[in-house]
Design brief:
This protein is an alpha/beta fold. It has one domain: Aldolase class I (TIM Barrel, Alpha-Beta Barrel), CATH 3.20.20. It has an eight-stranded parallel sheet. A four-stranded antiparallel sheet has the order 5-6-14-11, with no helix packed on it. About 50% of the residues are buried. The mean pLDDT is about 95. The chain binds flavin mononucleotide (FMN). The site of flavin mononucleotide has 27 residues, from strand 6.
C-alpha cells in the first residue's frame, strides 16, 4: 500500500525502486535507530519515509552488552548495544502487528552468529506479508561471536548471502556492509556475486572513548561503533567507490547511510550513487528531521530543474 504523495512535494517525484520494491521517498530509517516503529510512531513522521528498516533481530532473544553502552562524542555517538533484541518469536507476536499497519514497505534487519541462524530467520520472514525485504546485518562491530567476521571476509560474506538467497523468494535481499575493511568494494562484489539484490552501507566504525580521570574505557564493552556526522564523508566516499566499481555495473541499488542529518547530506549520497538514504543517529537529535530532509530534497530538485529524484542518482561530475 502506498500513502498519498505529500502536498509539499507533489510537483517532484521522490519515488525510487529498490530491487522491485517501490518507495515513495528515498528516505529510510537506519536499523537500530528507530526500534520496531512502536517506540517512535508518535515522534517520527513515518509518512515522510519510503521504507521502514527495523532494528536487528536474531533467532533467539539477546540482552545485549552491559551498560554503559552509548556515549556521545564530539561529532557523533559510540554505541555498543550488542544486538539487544526480543528474538524472532516475540518479534513476530508483538512487533509485526504494528509493522503491518505501517503504510510503507518494511525491511527487517537480520543478524546471527551462524549461517543457519540467519537462514532460519529469513525462512520464517518469507511467511510475513508486511515484510518486503531482509537487510542482512553481516557488519555489527559490537558482538563477540560471529557478526563482524561475516562482513570482513569476502568468502564468508558470500556464503551467508548465498544461503539466505536460497530461501528468499518473496523478500528482496539487501546486504549491509561493514566499513571496517581494507576495501569495501571487494566485499560488495562478493555478496553481489552471491545474489544480493541490493547493498546498504555503511554500518558503524569500530572506535573507543576514554574516561581520562578513571583511566578506563567509557563503554563497558571497551569498544563501540561510531556513527553520526563524523563518519559522513567516509560513508559518501565508500558509497561512491562501491557504486562505480560494483553496483552500477551490476545494476544493484545502494541504500547509503552514515551521518545524514540535513537534506544536503542526503543529496551527497544520491549524487555519489545511492538510490535511497538511511537516517539514523540524527533521529536521536531531532526525530522530525526526516520531514525537513524530505522537503529540502524536493527544494533541491526544483532548484536543479529536476522533476524526479532518480534524475540525480549517481550523477556526480568527475571531469
Ligand atoms: C544506537 C544504534 C543502534 C544501531 N543498531 C543497529 C542494528 O541493530 N543493526 C544494524 O545493522 N545497524 C545498527 N546500527 C547502525 C546504523 O543502522 C547505521 O548503519 C549507522 O549508525 C550509520 O548511520 P547514522 O550515522 O545515520 O547513524 C545502529 C546504530 C546506532 C547509532
Amino acid at each position: 500500500m502506498e500513502h498519498e504523495q505529500r502536498a509539499a512535494d507533489k510537483d517532484v517525484d521522490l519515488g525510487v525502486d529498490i530491487a522491485g520494491v517501490r518507495l515513495t521517498s528515498p528516505l529510510v530509517t537506519c536499523s537500530g535507530t528507530c526500534g520496531y516503529a512502536d517506540e517512535y510512531a508518535d515522534l517520527v513522521d513515518i509518512s515522510a519515509l519510503g521504507a521502514f528498516v527495523t532494528k536487528s533481530i536474531t533467532l533467539e532473544p539477546r540482552p545485549g552488552n552491559d551498560p554503559p553502552r552509548v556515549v556521545e562524542t564530539r561529532a557523533g555517538m559510540l554505541n555498543a548495544i550488542g544486538l539487544a533484541n526480543v528474538g524472532l518469536e516475540a518479534f513476530l507476536a508483538e512487533k509485526v502487528p504494528l509493522l503491518e499497519r505501517l503504510a510503507l514497505p518494511v525491511f527487517v534487519n537480520v543478524a546471527g552468529a551462524r549461517i543457519d541462524e540467519y537462514v532460519a530467520v529469513a525462512e520464517r520472514l518469507e511467511q510475513v506479508e508486511a515484510v518486503r525485504g531482509i537487510e542482512l546485518n553481516i557488519s555489527c562491530p559490537n558482538v563477540k561471536a560471529g557478526g563482524i567476521q561475516f562482513g570482513t571476509d569476502g568468502r564468508m560474506a558470500a556464503e551467508v548471502t548465498a544461503a539466505v538467497r536460497a530461501v528468499s523468494r518473496k523478500n528482496i535481499l539487501i546486504v549491509k556492509l561493514s566499513p571496517n575493511v581494507t576495501d569495501i568494494a571487494e566485499i560488495a562484489a562478493a555478496v553481489v556475486d552471491a545474489g544480493a539484490d541490493a547493498l546498504s552501507l555503511i554500518n558503524t566504525f569500530t572506535a573507543m572513548a576514554v574516561d581520562i580521570e578513571a583511566r578506563r574505557p567509557i563503554l563497558a564493552n571497551v569498544t563501540g561503533g561510531l556513527s553520526g556526522p563524523a563518519i559522513r564523508p567516509i560513508a559518501v566516499y565508500m558509497v561512491h567507490r562501491v557504486y562505480t566499481q560494483v553496483a552500477r555495473p551490476a545494476g544493484v541499488p545502494i541504500i547509503g547511510m552514515g551521518g545524514v542529518q540535513y537534506a544536503r547530506d542526503a543529496v551527497e549520497f544520491l549524487l555519489a550513487g545511492a538510490t535511497a538514504v538511511g537516517v539514523g543517529t540524527a533521529l536521536f537529535v531531532d526525530p522530525r528531521c526526516i520531514v525537513d530532509i524530505r522537503e529540502g530534497l524536493a527544494d533541491y530538485l526544483r532548484r536543479q530543474g529536476c522533476r524526479r529524484v532518480t534524475d540525480i542518482i549517481g550523477t556526480l561530475q568527475l571531469d
